[in-house]
Amino acid sequence: MAGVSPTPIEPAAPEVTLAGVEQHPHARAVLLPALPPAGAPSHAYLFYGPAGTGKRTVARSFAAALLADGARQPATVAERVARGAHPDLTWVTPSGSSEVLVSDIDEPVVAAVTHTPFESTRRVFVIEAAGTMNDQAANRLLKTLEEPPSFAHLILLAEHREDVLPTIASRCQQVRFDPLSSELLQQRLSGHAGEAIDPTRAAACARLAAGDARLAERLASEPGVALREWAEGFVRSTLHARTDERRWAGLLETAKAAGAEAGAAATERLHEQAELLPSKERRKYEREGVDVVRRAERRARTATLDLGLRLVELWLRDAWCLAAGAPELVFALDRSAELAADAEGRDADSLLRGVELVRDTRLRLPLNISEELALEALAYRLADLLS
Fold this sequence. Notes:
This protein is α/β, with parallel strands linked by helices. The protein is built from 15 helices and five strands. The protein has two domains: 25-176, Rossmann fold (3-Layer(aba) Sandwich); 221-251 and 296-386, Zinc Finger, Delta Prime, domain 3 (Up-down Bundle).
């Protein structure tokens, strides 16, 4: 009818989402309906899945959504959470060489969780590597999970759900993060930082990473290429009875270099933080910092050595695939010729037993055995079995 204005069309409400959940349907299904103000978030979540699949990213975006609810300036919350500068967010990382200690949990979480929020209506506590909590830390956290304040939300991150004590896991809303496909990882590597990575090498790194995006990027990097060469040199020297080359020494030196680099970075961070403290507190902080640096060095050295042995294990696994007549299952596609030479004429069962020998050494390394003796013993055992 003339003179009647058409009814204005309301713009569609923006789709509610969280950064990082695009590849994880289970995380979307659990977390998106819980977002405030309409949702009712749980007091505790357990994010589990392979490293590099985005658990930290989603934890930050979910924490930001929780803290923005009822905030006076909600627009600034996400940026401050990203910088780790929000007073109602506590992010716990392990201080032990390979585990979360009770000191990581006691004051930062158990004691702090009872304090009311500073500026938000909620407080969020994120605990990395929750699967490595020692018994003391786990028991302390359990009491908090049983009777948390109404304003507190805890997010635990772990690679494997089974690594977390059942009594703790049962008190958390569980959120699964599936491994990323090798195709997706290969696409990311091919366009990583604008670098031109050979497609075959990108495919190999993606397969070797088994869904771990950070590991895939590390293997494709210059240090990762060097580590692969040392690992492959080590295992091939045992396969061809060249243990006199002592190629395990190169693996050890690479691991020590990674530890030294991590220690230097930790020392620099400590100095920067100490500058902000009064002189009396600074001296105590620096004394305690010696242990922090030492643990950072050990974590990096152990992790690098474990990765090197994992690459040794995967080389034997690939050789086993070829010996068993399953070339389509090979991971290291960029080493086809070398793997074919190592698999030729070998007994598949012996190669599989070699994989088990390497895996056993990896399990024993955190028990404070001599790393050099462990690698030397592994080399001779592999040579006796396979060469």
